[in-house]
Amino acid sequence: MRTKLAPDKITYDDFKTHRTCYDLEKKKLPEKLEGLQELRYTDVPEVVTQRKKDGEAFLEKTEVQSLVEWKLKFGTYRPSLAKLVASNPVDDVRKTTASAFSLMSEDPNPSKAISTLSKLKGIGPATASLLLSCYNPDQIPFFSDELFRWLHWQTDVGGSAKKRKSKGMEDDGNANRKINYTAKEYASIFEKTTILRERLSKESGETITAVDIEKAAYKIIKSAQADQSTRALDDESDAPVEAKLTRPPSTKRRKKQTPEPKEPMPSTKCLQKGPRGSPTYDELGYELDYDYILKTSGRPRRPGKRAEEKMDRAIKDDARKAEIMGRPEDARLQEGAAWDDRVARDLGKAFHEVGVEEYEEWAKKGFQVQEGEFENPSEEEKERLLKLRIGCALRKGSKHR
User: Could you count the other beta carbons within 10 Å of the beta carbon of residue 282?
Assistant: First the structure.
């Protein structure tokens, strides 16, 4: 990694570039992964914020499981972790997360809350920080591998190669530095993130959040790891001729393979065609809205009064939808897509065309929910609803914005 990208030297412009790249690449993810991203950065934090306004913030067990699934998909995969988390009783998850969030309201330092959450099975400092980040994404960083390695980057690593290796460091900083995932390491992450947030906010005049830093760190470290791999290949190709001759010849004839070009995402195609281009359709055959895609591309703006009003309106709409469906409000996160799909099918509309007005129309026409209709959906049904939900805001006439 170049020295100028080290945390203590990075400029706001370089930081913003890497932070923006994260969001742009998010749009190229497979649908299921994009859905997990939406849950982690939007859906769950919004639900927690509303509960905080209602008097008590907490997480349901299903929400914690979704966050752990996101962590395993984008971080180090640990097969047993999901099973351990799933073994926690529902009431224990709600009470423990409520207790931890209450501690955060009293003391912005997350150390006590981390200890409280760690009482749950499968929840260590790293996963605990993820849950706390959903409670306060502005100030509480998620203990990701990339964030730890970037914040603890050493551009001048001294000592012998053996000594550096014993400390878990590479010759170029520490893009692959060993991590123990301890509370002490997270305390260091929290302190360094706070210092960096305050510096970049002061330099830019904007509010830099812990989530912003998390995303920029991910891009910077991934690039550094790719650079190290490239240099390793270059070093091998530059080896002396004598050294190359000592290698045993390969018994297989190598064929030069040309990688097939990746098919661009429908939203990317739409932007490439421009405002006067032919219509672009997503994988389900719905036409995309060029103007909306253009408007929402790039780094999202900081929330303002209009954004808050929009969020309040969405919360009220969700509450009304739950009332019409005869379901608790907190069931919206898990069942909302199934509700929208039921209303759409009964009214003969597309999934993305369903808003609170359609729910009212559905109720007036006498439609009703059958007991247990939305409970225990099959994996196939979950997959079908996920495909309907992902990217529906990009479709023409969408009411999911």
Answer: 21
According to the model, what pLDDT value does residue 277 have?
A: 85
| Residue pLDDT, tens place only, 36-46 | 888 999 999 99
Q: What is the pTM of this model?
A: 0.56
C-alpha 201/C-alpha 196 separation (Å) is 8
Place of tokens 């954004």: 307
8-state DSSP, 142: -
| CA-wise closest residue to 68 among 56, 80, 57 | 80
Please give the Cα distance from 11 to 2 (Å, whole number): 13
Show the 3-state SS of 6-53: CCCCCCHHHHHHHHHHHHHHHCCCCHHHHHHHHHHHHHHHHHHHHHHH
Q: 98 to each of 52, 141, 220, 303, how far by Cα in Å? A: 10, 19, 34, 26
- State how far the alpha carbon of 188 is from the alpha carbons of 63, 86, 147, in Å: 27, 29, 11
Tokens standing for 68? 């752990």
pLDDT score of 331 more than 50? yes
Nearest-CA neighbor of 172 among 221, 239, 234? 221
Q: Is the pLDDT reported for residue 305 higher than 50?
A: yes
The amino acid that residue 99 corresponds to is S
Q: How far apart are CA 264 and CA 261, in angstroms?
A: 9
CA–CA dist 153, 169 (Å, integer): 9
Single-letter amino acid code for the residue at 255:
K
Say which residue the tokens 């495909």 belong to.
Answer: 387
Of 90-99, 169-178, 189-198, 229-238, the poorest mean pLDDT is in 229-238
Which of 64, 23, 30 minimizes the C-alpha distance to 44? 64
- 333 band by pLDDT with thresholds 50, 70 and 90: confident
pLDDT for residue 181: 87
So what's the pLDDT on residue 178?
78
Q: Which two tokens stand for residue 211?
A: 């989530």
Q: Is 306 helix (H, G, I), strand (E, B) or coil?
A: helix
CA 98, CA 63: separation in Å to the nearest integer?
A: 13
Do 155 and 6 form a contact (C-beta atoms < 8 A)?
yes
Q: Which residues pair with 281 in a beta bridge?
A: 287
Task: Read off the tokens for 255.
Answer: 């064929």
